[in-house]
TrEMBL record, chain A:
Listed GO CC annotations: mitochondrion
Species, as recorded: Anthostomella pinea
Biased composition (Low complexity): 29-39
Keywords: Mitochondrion, Ribonucleoprotein, Ribosomal protein, RNA-binding
Location(s) in or outside the cell: Mitochondrion
SMART domains: DSRM, RIBOc
Sequence ranges assigned to domain RNase III in this UniProt record: 93-181
A single GO BP: RNA processing
Claim: Ribonucleoprotein is one of the keywords in the record: yes
Ribosomal protein among keywords: yes
GO molecular function: double-stranded RNA binding; ribonuclease III activity; structural constituent of ribosome
Primary subcellular site in the record, as a coarse category: mitochondrion
Protein name as catalogued: Large ribosomal subunit protein mL44
The family this protein is said to belong to: Belongs to the ribonuclease III family. Mitochondrion-specific ribosomal protein mL44 subfamily.
TrEMBL record, chain B:
Superkingdom of source: Eukaryota
GO-annotated molecular function: structural constituent of ribosome
Cellular compartments annotated: Mitochondrion
Family recorded in the similarity comment: Belongs to the mitochondrion-specific ribosomal protein mL43 family.
Gene Ontology process terms (BP): mitochondrial translation
Protein name: Large ribosomal subunit protein mL43
SUPFAM superfamilies cross-referenced by the UniProt entry: Thioredoxin-like (SSF52833)
A Pfam short name: L51_S25_CI-B8
Residue stretches making up the Ribosomal protein/NADH dehydrogenase domain: 32-105
Species whose genome carries this gene: Anthostomella pinea
Single GO cellular component term: mitochondrial large ribosomal subunit
Amino acid sequence: MKRIRIDRLSSQLLAATPARPPPSSNRIPRALAASRLSPAPSVCQTRCQSTAASPEVIYEDAGRDVAAPKPIDYSKRPLPSPHPDRALRSAKLAALHARLSLSSKIPLQTLARTLIDPSADAHPRFNNVNLAFVGAALLQYHTSEFLVTRYPRLPMTILFAAMKGYAGVPALHQIARAWGIEAAATPGEEVDPGLLQFAPDRPTVTMNRWGYVRAESKELQRYKWRRGVSSRILYDDAFGELVPGESEQSHDGLELSKQRNTKDMIVEDVAQNAHANFVRAVIGAVYLHCGRDVAKTFAKAHVLSRQLDLANLFNFKLPTRELVRLCARENFDAPVARLLSETGRLSRTPVFVVGIYSGTDKLGEGVGPSLDAARISAAINALKSWYLYSPGDTVGVPSDTLAEDAAPWKPVYVDIGEIIS
Amino acid sequence: MTIRALEKVSVGQNGVGAFILQCKRMDIHYCDYSGSSRGMNAFIKSQLAKFASTHPQIEFAVSPRPRKHPVLTGHYINGKHKSICVKNMDSLQILKKAELLRDASGEKIRKVNKPITSITESVRGVWSPYHGKGMAV
């Protein structure tokens, strides 16, 4: 038995430590990509912990091991997510494929990949970041064209809220739950590929969203500066939300990727975000394997067919004043509130019915327990009926003209904008 | 800016747009030895393969449960599960029970005493021919 030379041993360990990635970071080096394609041989680690150091542990020259560190054998490390070949043998995944009525053109491996969040596997070839990016772009496009052509007079703030109600993270989370997605307790190689895999304690990658990082984004976040609607249209993402700048705390020792995008950040609700990204990635996968029209049908069937009552999104601050401005803008007569009927004026529960008239046209009617409340609710109803004008369900959307034998695009009516902005 | 937006999430109704079968997994337990599983063993041998291939949406798990009665368990998307003991049944009866589990929504069984359940409630209710002025024929 050789005598252990502690000083040499420690210097060797110190030299070898920086070469391997820190255990907390989940980044897979590129060399692992090759080893993934062929299943890893199950060789147990030969470097056991016996204190009788084998000859290669102790170096004669302390300087030499700094120059040539021992290569790391990646084949012995567990993969961060299941091997793609295992997707073919997963009953859960096959059931999910059939439950969503996906085309057989979409392979099970792709479906397995849509279930892997970047917090589970940071390698972009094995997680769903890129698919989710494609899916998010498609979904937001179809949602916005659906809303703009169907409701051409929606104010911008309501349009943003409606976009979020249909295609935002909470709605997509609900959709993923309704598809019967279960989350794995912890991501890893041994997990069934049919489970959604994310790690709440590791940073994930938000897709680089459509939008610009504002120069003053740090102050906007810190001091809650006001953002005007026009600048929200111009700079912010599809839901009118600030595109966050680089966050300082996300890069302390948790290296995700240097060359990909620098917008990595820690999201608030990792589970919701992972579910939403899965839905987007499925839409992206449908687009890649089945094409544009099938992806549009899929998004319509699963996302846009859901019910959202847009009349409930409005919260008016000055409805009477806004109605006056609307009538002035449209060259209507100035609105006049008239009492239509009342009951129990002196009782505990009086009811007044007030109509708002412009000339002889009744714009709206409202009910309330006092004259003022009834007048305000009448003004709100009149404004809602203006803003929620719809040309009908049959109005075409611009993406209809992308089909082969489509009729040429007829421009639809879109209003000039808000009354008071 | 006088209009503010409230945040709401869209509500989905299964079958509007897309239909998702609510039963996502079925566990099938049998015993090799005891007589109460005779029908279940015949079901597994003769009918399960066909039933499973016609329902690819459902994940089937067959596992022995020695010295116990045979059980069918359905797991549903809403997180609930439903178990049926199928002791001493023949294979056709078990097939009926499997179809019952397939068709169930996983919701608790509760009394429905309103003619219509809706997410956009009607103010007036259902029209009735027996009330009001009646219909002139």
